Amino acid sequence: MDIPTAITWMAAQLMLSGAVSVGVFYSFLIYKGLMSERFASTINSTFQYFMLSVPVARVDDIVEAKSERYTPLVDSQKATEVRDFRHIEVRDVTFNYGISDEAVLRNLSFEVSRGDKIVITGPSGSGKSTLFKLLAAAEPLQHGHMALNGIAWPNLAVDEIRRHMAHMRQGDIILHGSIADNVTLFAGNADEDRVHKLLADVGLLDDVMRLPMRTRTMISDTIANISAGQRQRLLLARALYQDREVLMLDEPTSNLDPASVRHIEGLLQSLNRTVVVITHDMSLASSFDVRYRFVDGGLVRDAQAQTPELADAIDE
Ligand SMILES: Nc1ncnc2c1ncn2[C@@H]1O[C@H](COP(=O)(O)OP(=O)(O)OP(=O)(O)O)[C@@H](O)[C@H]1O
Ligand SMILES: [Mg+2]
Fold first, then answer.
1. pTM of the predicted model as reported, rounded to 2 decimal places
2. Residue 66 is assigned to a structural domain of this protein
3. Which residue is closest in CA terms to ligand 1's atom 3?
4. Which of 110, 119, 141, 300 could form a disulfide with 288 if both were Cys (CB 3.0 to 4.6 A apart)?
5. Taking Cα atoms as reference points, which of 83, 105, 92, 243 lies closest to residue 151?
6. Considering the domain boundaries, does residue 65 fall inside one?
7. How far is the CA of 191 from the centre of ligand 1 (A)?
8. Predicted confidence (pLDDT) per residue in 77-118, tens digit
9. Which residue owns the Cα nearest ligand 1 atom 25?
10. 52: exposed, middle or buried (C-beta count within 10 Å: 0-12, 13-18, 19+)?
């Protein structure tokens, strides 16, 4: 018998023995009910009060977050001054996410010049995506030297750097909208011909044209009405639509079948753009002449004449 039932039972015994009247017994029951209800609600409120610290801490994080170094309005003209991408230099860069964390990048040096086609490989967690975040100014330069066209990173506004880069991230998401919206990122004056051309370039146009609503078909990550490989090619089309000089693609083919990988290989090599690709796929990597591998937080350039088989063996 639980405690409330035991109390009621005792009160009933008192009433039956004549110690209290029937009226007092019923009043007792009503007040007992009210009291336990209030008691439960007090406990609930106390619990909610302590739980409040969780969202307050999140809001605190957001309020305390350092703002990005956006180009001030008065200097917006300056942001367009670095017009053409020529060269990015990364020298002796060391980077860690938290003060107490071990460095992810250690004395890393790397260069990208206009027109280069570069592939970066390396074990999971070695720092490949982190390097891309630094190049795209999504993470700050902490130690070392980085320069765009010879202008040191601290003298550049983030806009000046990003306007040259199309960055396809590993965690990029499909937004709730049409296929076309997802390629153009909801651009107001979207170029439909280019959307069709890019969907064809990434090998997705036939799939899209079979849908009743074609490029107007609504998609989203929650509806999950496109396959992982289709999603990846759509994200690639989105990166291409931005029409930036430097394409930084983080694992663009991890969900594709070998034939589709070969198709994307051909596309990337044919582009009149600077391309830097991160991949675990050695068949994609072997289509690039310039290959770097992550070793101990730094980048090591593979020998030019190296065969894909040898690269495979080294990677294992
Ligand atoms: N936002 C973050 N905060 C803290 N640590 C992070 C963050 N992002 C990555 N790391 C850590 O930094 C290291 C490098 O991560 P990164 O994403 O650059 O690896 P990667 O080489 O791209 O791996 P993968 O091949 O699995 O994509 C990992 O140990 C990871 O745990
Ligand atoms: Mg990664």
1. 0.78
2. no
3. 97
4. 119
5. 83
6. no
7. 36
8. 555 678 899 999 999 999 998 877 799 999 999 999 999 999
9. 124
10. exposed
